[in-house]
Amino acid sequence: MITSTLRLINKLFLRPYRPKEPPSKTVAIVVPLSSRPELTPDEKISLRHLQHYLGDYDKYLIVPRGSSIEIEGCKRMPFSRKYFGSPAAHVRLLFDPRFYRKFADYRYIFFYHLDAVAFSDQTLEWCDKDYDYIGAPWFHCEDSPWVEEPRVGNGGFALLKTESALEVLHNRYLEKPGTYWLDLFARNGRRLRPVIWLLQKLKPLFPQAKWINSPLHELWAFDNCDSSGRHIDAFWADNAVNYLPEFKVAPFEEGLRFAFEVEPRKCLEMNGGKMPFGCHAWGRYDREFWEPYLLKADTLEGGTERNTATERVPHNTT
C-alpha cells in the first residue's frame, strides 16, 4: 500500500526522462575538489597532467560554495557545502539527477578526480566507443581483496554518458519510488536532525516499522558508504543495468586499456605491456611504479608549470 501510494505521488512529480534536444557538445571534464582551501602537491601533479594533455576541453570545477580556489581554463560550478568533506557527501551529490542535468548539453561527462592522471589525449576515441560507463577496473588482489569478479570500475577517472545516467536515475525513482524520498532524506540529514532524533527515539518502541528503519538505514548507508557499498561507481558498474537494460558497461579488458588503479604492475602485464589512457589513485597504489611517468614542472613549456591553481584574494571592502 505504501509503495503504491509513493509510486502514484512520484508520477505526479516525476516523468520518464526525455531529453529536450540532442546534446550539442561531446564531453565535459568534471573535476571535483575537496573542502580544503588549497591543493596538495599531489593534486597539483594530477592537475598538471589534466592541463597538459586535456587542456582543450571544457572543464568544470565542482567546488563548495565559498571556496576561493580557481584554476585557469576551468569554469567553477559551486554546490552546497553539504556535498563536500567526505566520500559520503560526494556520493549524495552524484545520486542527485540535478547534478547531471547541468551537463545535459554534453554527450559525456569525464570525471577526473585530482588523484588521477592522464598520459595522453584519447578522450574522443573513448567517447566514440559509445559505452555508457567506463572507469579504472577492479580485480581481486591484495589492493582490493573485496572484489569477487574483475570488472569496470572506479569513478575517479571515468566516462559516463549523460543521457543514460539521467534515464537510469529517473527510472530508479519510478521503479523504486521509496528511493526518491529516502535520497531526499539522506541529502538533507542536517536539516532533518529533529526528525532523525525522533525516529531514533521511536525505533526501540517499533523495531519492525519500515517507516522508521528505512530512513535511518539510508542515512547510515550514505554516511558509511565503505561499509554499505553505497558507492556511485559501483552503482554505475553493477546496478544501473537494473533500471536501463541497455546500459552498456565496458568489459574488463577495455577498462584496462582505459585506466589502471589497483596493482598497476599486474595491470600492465594483463594489458600486454601497454600503458593505459590514464590511471586513478596513483599516489595510493604503488606510487613508485608511477613516478617515471609523472610530468615534472620543468618538462612543460617554458620550463614552468602552466595553469596551476591559484587562490583568489578577496578585495578589501573596508
Radius of gyration, rounded? 21 Å
Given helix and strand content, the structural type is alpha/beta
Overall geometric form: globular
Strand tally = 11
Q: Identify the CATH architecture.
A: Alpha-Beta Complex
What does the largest sheet look like? 6 strands, mixed
Unreliable residue stretches: 302-318
CATH topology annotation:
Spore Coat Polysaccharide Biosynthesis Protein SpsA, Chain A
Give the number of domains.
Answer: 1
Ends apart, CA distance between termini: 61 Å
How much helix is in the residues? Answer: 25-40%
- Total helices: the number is 14
Average of per-residue pLDDT values: 84
Instruction: List the quaternary state of the chains.
Output: single chain
DSSP strand content: 15-25%
The CATH class is identified as Alpha Beta
Describe the structure.
The chain has 318 residues and is α/β, with parallel strands linked by helices. It has one domain: Alpha-Beta Complex (Spore Coat Polysaccharide Biosynthesis Protein SpsA, Chain A), CATH 3.90.550. 39% of the residues lie in helices and 18% in strands. The protein is built from 14 helices and 11 strands. It has helices at 2-13, 41-54, 87-94, 97-101, 123-128, 162-175, 177-187, 193-202, 210-223, 225-228, 232-239, 252-258, 264-270, 287-290, and strands spanning 25-32, 58-64, 69-71, 75-79, 106-112, 116-118, 133-138, 151-161, 259-260, 278-280, 309-311. The strands form 3 sheets. A 6-stranded mixed beta sheet has the order 4-2-1-5-8-7. Strand 9 (259-260), helix 13 (264-270) and strand 10 (278-280) form a beta-alpha-beta unit. The protein starts with a helix and ends in a 7-residue tail after the last strand.
